[in-house]
Amino acid sequence: MSQSGRYLGMLVLLGVGWGSTQPMGKIATETGHGPFGLIFWQLVVCVLVLGFVTGLRGRLFLFTPRALQFSVAVAILGTLVPNATFYISVTHLPASIMSILISAVPMLSFPMAMALGMDRFSYPRLLGLLLGLGGVALLAAPGAGVWSAGLVAFIPLALIGPLFYATEANFVAKFGTAGMDAVQAMFMASVVALILCLPLALGTAQMFNPFAAPGRAEAALLVSSAIHALCYAGYVWLASRAGAVFAAQCSYLVTGAGVLWAMLLLNEQLPAQALVSLVLMMAGVAMVSPRRAGRADVA
Fold this sequence. Notes:
Blueprint: H1 3-28, H2 35-56, H3 65-90, H4 95-101, H5 105-115, H6 123-140, H7 154-158, H8 160-175, H9 182-203, H10 216-242, H11 244-247, H12 250-266, H13 272-288
Helix pairs in contact: 1-4, 1-10, 1-12, 2-3, 2-9, 2-10, 3-8, 3-9, 4-12, 5-8, 6-13
């Protein structure tokens, strides 16, 4: 297989893998486990997988003030808050709707980047932002299935995750990764998030033992956590070789695959209005995403 073929294959694999974590996250909530208990075990798996990868590369912890500050910020912005709101929202909303909403990250990131002076205004990207907002409005409007089920109030809650991911992206873009490579930074942030999550899970009585009576929900949680960690490592590998702009295209596949996985695993069906919303969101992402020539800094 040619080099470009390998890169394309990895891109598809990342999209299909990451897309599966949305419906599996919904399955993980079936037994009523609280969000912080779910996040704790998710982080245990991520720390083990990413620790193994970083250990093989000879890079584990970096104990500097900047590295610790970075890890705390990313643990809160990229894990604890967005994952908590995800698990609460996905309990009520269809996984396919959650997959569509996660594509709002670049559209929320764009105005933040402009406000921080890291990006410039352009009318095509403004149009992309408006298309994305139109897609969200369609999801919340009568006819998309969410309104009739009385679940429209959970859409703003579900958008907190993308908002925090967008904030995290701009934080990393502005301040860097404190001297760590991307996988090492993710490992450090996961360790810090695990430490912060433990008292939250215990204090809210949401801690549980997934091995006491393992079932479909526990298996979905552990498998989706491992997939997420492996996909992240694969994403960094792809970005370091094919460029960050090429690798970022997996976001389209993640949303599309998430909708298809929801149909396959959960038998969900999207109404026509939600499909139009999906098209608008994808068009918005395409127009908002920056165009940079050449290879990009992975960090």
